[in-house]
Write a structure and sequence with these properties.
heterodimer; A: Alpha-Beta Plaits; 11 helices; globular; B: 259 residues
Chain lengths: 318, 259
């Protein structure tokens, strides 16, 4: 293969009737990297994955996976990719192992090799092979789903909202699996509505809004463009609030919550300690403290001028 | 081509596992024709048998009705196929199959092969019960083979039609209703009473619908009644239904899906 990117997309468009879902998007994902397609529900993320995984056709534009055109050469594209959808694509009537062996058979791997790979994936993803998939928990189903996409050793993997609906622990397990996959040199395109997820997993982020890519760059770059990180201090009374405001040189927001002071900052341990030291020195008692990091909400607000329905990331300490 | 066969075999194995895990459903589908057989032989058979133009009573009627019951068996079983296909299409795994480099219609071929095997097994059981309640065919080995061949061809045709119906219905509830007319066709044909006994309009329909020549051919092969041109017409119908069902199913499966 030449130096062509693993995923190369130019001017991709798709509409359903008069509703434009993708309004000309460009993507370039170099081999062995992870790109996160970040956006709220209805932004067009799933449609993009469906076109790239040959499930549906684009109305216009070009998409090449490992050098193969998705429209003209879907067979070669299918042979190179693994897909994990938003809705788990497992066979409920089969056990975990049978699901994986089914995939191996469809990749024409042969009996022994198929069983070996199934056993390997069951171990790597911590799945009970003998149990019917219908009895799996949400996190297990998602892991099995991903494992099934990996049986054929794909060079490019599409993950459509891999952690939506998962509990925090399953989400972390999934993140680790994706990191391991990336470490093996697999090119990954993942869609997500969580900035934190994109931040954790992707080397670069493309922000999708109403069918257009409105921003792209490394996670840190993108977050720098977004204001909104601050420390939220809550006080027991007006006296403490006034004293703190004077000490820190920050005016309370007259339209905000009463007894709350918002101090701009990134919430790092060093700056937090400095902040609390200054308040201690001034003998100001803080009731509670919360660190607010910029979330998808803030990114959206900053880049599109419109809020989304998702919550910003939040860490609260008492 | 060899990939298509290999993928279809894989999908057949998947299908057989599904059937094994849904054994109660399979057994229920098997109960329908057996109940019909017992009902028509023991409750109605005495009277209907005398009406066949002899005084053979129940014994004559077992022989007469068995080919009709065999088609009821096929029609009932393909109802199960339509439901299974519709249910399968609601599973996420079908989308996964579409993103894989496999023979595209092998999912459907798997369903067809699995269902045909299931139909043949059910036919064997129903035929066994028929013999137990007095069915006495006088067929030679060659005639048995021909009858088995015709039943297989019929099964293939109706299964492809049922697969298309399952795809067209979009949900299991509709899928169980669409093939319902197939269960009625043996009644509106020569399955339970001779067509000569029907009023003119109905008789015309009964003599020109696909199930009648199939049943007449089976009757001829198993019991030695005249076959005439029924065999040719039966095979023609089967070929037409199979081809139509296959093309319809393929078109439905290949259309773009928007969930």
């Amino acid at each position: 293969m030449t130096s062509e990117p693993a995923i190369a997309v130019t001017g991709l468009r798709r509409s359903y009737g008069s509703h434009v879902v993708l309004d000309g998007i460009d993507l370039h994902v170099p081999e062995g990297t992870v790109l996160a397609l970040l956006g709220p529900n209805g932004a067009g993320k799933t449609t993009a994955v469906r076109i790239l995984s040959t499930l549906i056709r684009a109305d216009a534009g070009e998409a090449r996976i490992c050098g193969h055109d998705v429209t003209r050469d879907p067979g070669r594209v299918r042979a190179a990719i693994g897909v994990t959808g938003q809705f788990s694509a497992v066979d409920d009537f089969l056990t975990g192992e049978e699901n994986l062996v089914l995939m191996a058979d469809l990749h024409h791997l042969g009996r022994a090799e198929g069983r070996r790979r199934a056993a390997d994936l069951l171990r790597r993803f911590d799945l009970p092979g003998r149990q019917p998939a219908a009895t799996y928990s949400g996190g297990m189903r998602r892991r099995l789903d991903l494992a099934m996409g990996l049986v054929g050793d794909p060079r490019v993997v599409f993950l459509d909202e891999p952690t939506t609906g998962l509990d925090p622990r399953s989400r972390r397990d999934m993140w680790q699996i994706v990191r391991d996959l990336a470490a093996r040199g697999v090119t990954i395109l993942l869609t997500t509505q969580y900035l934190e997820e994109a931040d954790q997993l992707a080397g670069s982020i493309a922000l999708l809004d109403r069918g257009r890519i409105v921003a792209r760059g490394a996670p840190a770059e993108l977050k720098r463009r977004v204001p909104g990180g601050h420390v939220e201090l809550r006080f027991a009374g007006d006296e403490a609030l006034t004293a703190a405001a004077a000490t820190l040189g920050v005016a309370p927001d007259p339209d905000g919550e009463p007894l709350v002071l918002r101090v701009p900052g990134d919430g790092g341990v060093r700056s937090l300690r400095a902040l609390l030291d200054r308040l201690d020195a001034a003998r100001v008692e803080v009731d509670t403290l919360a660190v607010r990091t910029p979330g998808l909400d803030d990114v959206f607000l900053a880049l599109t001028g419109r809020p989304t329905a998702t919550n910003p990331g939040e860490v609260t300490a008492r | 081509m060899s990939h298509a066969i290999r993928d279809s075999a894989t999908m057949l194995r998947r299908q057989l596992r599904h059937m094994w895990r849904n054994l109660p459903v399979v057994l229920m589908l098997l109960a329908v024709p057996i109940v019909f057989l017992l009902l028509f032989v023991y409750v109605l058979g005495g009277t209907l048998g005398d009406g066949l133009g002899g005084s053979g009573g129940r014994r004559a009627y077992v022989d007469y009705v068995t080919p009709g019951i065999l088609l009821i068996t096929v029609a009932g079983a393909v109802q199960g196929t339509a439901i299974a296909v519709a249910l399968d299409m609601t599973q996420g795994i079908i989308a996964r199959f579409r993103t894989m480099a496999i023979a595209r219609t092998s999912v459907l071929t798997g369903h067809v092969l699995g269902s045909v095997l299931q139909v043949l097994l059910q036919l064997a059981v129903v035929l066994g019960v028929a013999v137990l309640v007095g069915f006495r065919p006088d067929a030679t080995a060659v005639e048995w083979l021909a009858a088995a061949g015709l039943l297989t061809v019929t099964a293939v045709a109706l299964v492809w039609l049922a697969v298309a119906m399952g795809l067209a219905s979009g949900n299991p509830a509709t899928a169980s209703n669409l093939p319902m007319p197939l269960l009625l066709l043996p009644f509106f044909g020569s399955g339970f009473v001779p067509t000569e006994s029907m009023p003119a309009g109905l008789r015309w329909f009964a003599e020109h619908q696909p199930f009648t020549p199939i049943m007449e051919t089976l009757r001829g092969l198993l019991l030695g009644t005249p076959i005439g041109n029924s065999a040719v017409i039966a095979l023609g119908w089967c070929a037409a239904i199979a081809l139509g069902g296959y093309l319809w199913a393929r078109a439905l499966y290949n259309r773009e899906r928007i969930r």
